[in-house]
Amino acid sequence: MRIAVVGTGYVGLVVGACFAETGNDVVCVDRDAAKIRMLRRGQIPIYEPGLEELVRRNRAEKRLTFSTTLPDAVRKAEVVFIAVGTPTGEDGSADLQHVLAAAREIGRAMTGYTVVVDKSTVPAGTAARVREAIGRETPHPFSVVSNPEFLKQGAAVEDFLKPDRVVIGADDDRAATTMRDLYRPFTRTGAPIMVMDTTSAELCKYAANAMLATRISFMNEVANVCERFGADVDKVRQAIASDRRIGPAFLFPGIGYGGSCFPKDVKAVIKFATDKRYRFRILEAVETVNESQKLRLLERLDGHFGKSLKGKTIALWGLAFKPRTDDMREAPSIAIIKGILARGGKVRAFDPVARAVAKKLFGSKITYARNAYDAAKGADALLLVTEWNEFREPDFARVRRVMRSPVLIDGRNLYDPAQIRSLGFTYASIGRP
Ligand SMILES: NC(=O)c1ccc[n+]([C@@H]2O[C@H](COP(=O)([O-])OP(=O)(O)OC[C@H]3O[C@@H](n4cnc5c(N)ncnc54)[C@H](O)[C@@H]3O)[C@@H](O)[C@H]2O)c1
Q1: Atom 21 (ligand 1): residue with closest C-alpha?
Q2: Element (H, E) at 106
Q3: Helix, strand, or coil here: 195?
Q4: Per-residue pLDDT tens digits for 224-262
Q5: Could you tell me the distance, in angstroms and rounded to a whole number, from the CA of residue 300 to the centre of ligand 1?
């Protein structure tokens, strides 16, 4: 099939590359000319495991191309995916300006029947608005499909190639058949393709993210209660995770969720429920808990050093909102760095891949270390922020040697408290005695 993907970000690039991989002709469009130039040179603008190889192979086979001109790409396409950003608007709602602008442009460029697919995460009822926006611009027939994306950054390629399920919201059979054909290669192992109305499909994505965010905030609250009783949240987590009704995923306490999806999607659900005069009280609490959880490491620093960090250097291991990505959108590290700087402290940070992104955010306000030990050098405390694999078993004797004072605050419960203390560290984590 001939496909155009509008928006070549974390989602659009993965979607485009994966559809090219199954033999389709894909043009990925973005209005960011610098991004397209990089991709045309064979460079990948984001860090995502496995993506570079996929893009290289499909570019070489000429199945995957990149463009800044949407009309050219859309004119030839049978299916057009909208994968632009839907950031939080001023009132907390998902800002649809990019989606609707893309829809209008697609409408103007179409030359015959086209399936237009909302891949971006959009509130219930958006398919109707996209339909209207396109309809005003074109005399040609078209279908609008809602096809929410469930991939997770850090494992996006694998998630897309082997989905748990594919959700297709289609209000007509022709579009549903096209979408089934497109996804068949990815569902041969039996993953279901679930076809439903567009509004239900739109809600699937928000319900999934809201549920996952709820589990995280719930476990963070359990951890906070454990701390007050001197209980061990790890033991509690393992016990409830083995209950088949609960399961093990998304039960790790830490310093709150971040990233480009959970924070904005939770806000969006609260807002669109409110617009329908429904108060989504659980999600209001999920958000409040998350905001305070992001500050837990700062509270720990306050407990140790008092309110001022003047003359102190704090090392950070990890900046990305989670491992295996360079994405720092809404990352807890941002609130932590701002808090340290506001207390007069200095930050020495190391992240295996997020350095360039962090530089755009913090410039020369913090120091960027070459590796984990370099970050710890001369530090008065070390904060474990992102649980990258390479931080799991460092040479603690070396870390202790290079630090000015051996204070380790573990925001991800990565280490064994007894072992770390036996090495001479003052150690604190989340919800463990
Ligand atoms: N990042 C994820 O893990 C993830 C997962 C599932 C769903 N989503 C959803 O997918 C959507 C995209 O997310 P993302 O993380 O890929 O965003 P992103 O910011 O990485 O990429 C969006 C891209 O769209 C481009 N763009 C915006 N308007 C455009 C236009 N009119 N024409 C051409 N290009 C345009 C931007 O330049 C940018 O490169 C969002 O709705 C998000 O909620 C994201």
Answers
A1: 9
A2: helix 97-109
A3: strand
A4: 999 999 999 999 999 999 999 999 999 999 999 999 999
A5: 36
- Give yes or no: 261 in active site: yes
pLDDT confidence of residue 180: 97
CA distance 422 to 131: 64
Give the tokens for residue 88.
């939080």
Evaluate whether 332 touches 321 at the Cβ level (below 8 Å): yes
Q: List C-alpha distances in Å: 10 to 17, 151, 244.
A: 11, 10, 33
Indicate the SS3 state at residue 102: helix
Cα gap 24→63, rounded to integer Å: 7
Question: How buried is residue 72: exposed, middle or buried, by Cβ count under 10 Å (0-12/13-18/19+)?
Answer: middle
The whole-number pLDDT of residue 11 equals 98
Which pTM value belongs to this model? 0.96
- Best residue among 260, 265, 267 to mutate for probing ligand 1, ranked by most atoms within 8 Å of CB: 260
- How remote is the CA of residue 120 from the centroid of ligand 1, in Å? 7
* Distance between Cα 13 and ligand 1 center (Å): 9
Residues 6+ apart with CB under 8 A from 386: 317, 318, 319, 320, 321, 322, 323, 331, 333, 351, 412
pLDDT digits (tens, 9 = 90+) for 101-134: 999 999 999 999 999 999 999 999 999 999 999 9
* Structure tokens that stand for 287 in this block: 């958000």
Name the residue with tokens 């589990």. 215
Q: How remote is the CA of residue 428 from the centroid of ligand 1, in Å? A: 37
Ligand 1 atom having least distance to the Cα of 102: 31
Rounded CA separation 297/43 (Å): 36
Environment class of 357 (CB within 10 Å of its CB; exposed 0-12, middle 13-18, buried 19+): buried
Q: Which is the closest atom of ligand 1 to the Cα of 153?
A: 3
User: Which residues have CB under 6 Å of ligand 1?
Assistant: 6-12, 29-32, 35, 70, 83-86, 98, 101-102, 120-121, 149, 151, 153, 260-261
Q: Could you give phi then psi for residue 384, rounded to 5 degrees?
A: -90, 110
| CA distances for 402 relative to 109, 315, 387, 396, 430, angstroms | 61, 11, 21, 10, 25
Residue nearest to atom 37 of ligand 1 (CA): 32
Tokens of 73: 């790409």
